[in-house]
Design a protein that fits this description.
single chain; about 350 residues; alpha/beta; Rossmann fold; five-stranded parallel sheet; 9 helices; about 25% helix; elongated; binds flavin-adenine dinucleotide
C-alpha cells in the first residue's frame, strides 16, 4: 500500500502557494487511481495551521507539521531536517512536492537521507494497471519519458504550471506537530534580504495567460531604411501594461545587447525562450518580429494556442509552428492592438 505525502512549505504569509495546490491535484488523482493508497499532507513553516485549513477539504486523512521561526526561511539544513522528520513520521512511500526554488535545493538530499530516489521536472503522475509512473521531458522538451520505480520512498518534484491547481476548499485540519531540536550549527545560513525588481519591471510572469515574444525584427531597419527602437520599446511596454502578458524573447534579440547594438533595455537572457532558453507554460502565445526557427520554437512546446506576426511569409512559423500567422508589420498591428485594448480595458 502506498502512502502518498504532499510535502509543502508555506509562504511568508502562512498561505499555501498555487504550486502546493498543483502538487495536491496530482497527489489526489494518484490517490484516487490507487485504491489502497493513503493520502497525507506535510507542511513546514512558522505556523502551518492556516495553510492546512485552506486545503482541509481535500481527501488527506492526516496532516503533519514542523513549525517555528527557524522554519520560516529557506535553508537547506533546517528544511531537509524538517522534511526528513515528516517523511519518517508519515512513513511516506511516495512524496510529491512542488518544484519551488526552496524545495529544489532540498529534495535530492532528502532522498539520500531516506535511502530513496528523487525525480525532478515531473509533469505528470499516472497509475495505469496499478503501476505508478511519472512523466518528464528530456532533450529540451523534445522527448517525453514515462518512468517507473520500485525504490521507495520515491520523491517526485512537480514542475510548476504543469498541473491544474486543486480547488479543495477550506475547513479545519488537525495538524500533528512534530517537535524538533535544531542544533545551533544548522542555523548559520540566514536570508538577510530579498532583492526583487519593482512590480512593473518584472516582465517574466509565469502565471500570465499570454506569452508575448519579441524577436530581433523589432530592432532591424524597417521599410523606411531606419530602425525604430524607441517606438518598439513604447509599443511593447504599452502592450505588457494592458495585457499583463509575460515577456519572452528570441536569442537574437537578447544577444544584441551584448554586441553593443541598440536593444530594448528591459530584456535580459532570462527572457529567452528556446533550446538554450526557457520553456514556459502559458495557455496562449503571440510572437512578434521573430522568425520562428526551430531552436526558438522548441521552447514553445507547452504553449497551447500560438499566433505570430512576421513580415516574412516563409518564416519558420509558416511551417506548421503556429496556429495563425499574420504576415504583417508588427509595428502597425501592435499599435492597433494597443489602441483597441486601451479602448476596451
Ligand atoms: C545551438 C543553438 C541554440 C539556440 N537556442 C536558441 C534559443 O534558445 N532561443 C532562440 O530564440 N534562438 C536560439 N537559437 C538561435 C535561433 O536559431 C535563431 O537564430 C533566433 O531565434 C533568431 O531570432 P529572431 O527570429 O528574433 O531573429 P531573425 O532571424 O533576425 O528574425 C527576425 C524576424 O523579424 C521579422 N520582422 C522584421 N521586421 C518586422 C516587422 N516590422 N513586423 C513583423 N516582422 C518583422 C523578419 O521578417 C524576420 O522573420 C539557437 C541557435 C543554436 C545554433
Amino acid at each position: 500500500m502506498e502512502t502518498i505525502l504532499v510535502l509543502a512549505h508555506t509562504e511568508a504569509d502562512g498561505s499555501p502557494a498555487q504550486t502546493v495546490r498543483e502538487s495536491l491535484h496530482a497527489a489526489v488523482n494518484l490517490h484516487q487511481a490507487s485504491p489502497d493508497s493513503k493520502l497525507v499532507v506535510g507542511l513546514i513553516g512558522t505556523n502551518v495551521e492556516a495553510a492546512a485549513n485552506a486545503i482541509a477539504a481535500c481527501p488527506a486523512t492526516k496532516y503533519f507539521g514542523v513549525t517555528g521561526a527557524e522554519f520560516a526561511q529557506p535553508r537547506y539544513a533546517t528544511d531537509c531536517a524538517a522534511a526528513e522528520a515528516i517523511c519518517k513520521s508519515a512513513q511516506a512511500t511516495i512524496v510529491i512536492a512542488p518544484a519551488t526554488a526552496r524545495w529544489n535545493r532540498v529534495l535530492a538530499g532528502l532522498a539520500q537521507r531516506l535511502g530513496g530516489r528523487a525525480d525532478t521536472h515531473v509533469t505528470g503522475i499516472s497509475a495505469e494497471s496499478g503501476v505508478i509512473g511519472i512523466s518528464r521531458w528530456y532533450y529540451r522538451q523534445r522527448m517525453e519519458a514515462l518512468v517507473q520505480r520500485t525504490q521507495r520512498p520515491w520523491i517526485v518534484a512537480i514542475d510548476p504550471g504543469s498541473q491544474t491547481p486543486c480547488n479543495c476548499g477550506a475547513g479545519t485540519a488537525v495538524v500533528e506537530v512534530i517537535s524538533m531540536q535544531i542544533p545551533e550549527a544548522s542555523l548559520r545560513t540566514k536570508v538577510v534580504g530579498v532583492r526583487a525588481p519593482a512590480a512593473d519591471a518584472q516582465t517574466i510572469r509565469p502565471d500570465a495567460k499570454l506569452l508575448f515574444v519579441t524577436g530581433a525584427g523589432w530592432t532591424k531597419k524597417q521599410a523606411d531604411g531606419q530602425t525604430h527602437v524607441p517606438e518598439a520599446e513604447h509599443l511593447i511596454r504599452d502592450f505588457l501594461k494592458v495585457s499583463r502578458a509575460s515577456l519572452g524573447s528570441s536569442k537574437s534579440l537578447v544577444d544584441l545587447g551584448g554586441e553593443g547594438q541598440a536593444i530594448l533595455p528591459f530584456l535580459s537572457h532570462l527572457n529567452q525562450i528556446g533550446q538554450t532558453g526557457a520553456t514556459p507554460r502559458h495557455p496562449k502565445g503571440l510572437s512578434t518580429c521573430c522568425h520562428g526557427e526551430e531552436p526558438h520554437t522548441v521552447g514553445w512546446r507547452f504553449i497551447a494556442e500560438r499566433r505570430a506576426i512576421s513580415l516574412d511569409a516563409n518564416c519558420g512559423w509558416a511551417r506548421g509552428k503556429t496556429d495563425v500567422l499574420y504576415v504583417a508589420d508588427a509595428f502597425q498591428v501592435m499599435q492597433k492592438v494597443n489602441a483597441l485594448l486601451a479602448a476596451n480595458p
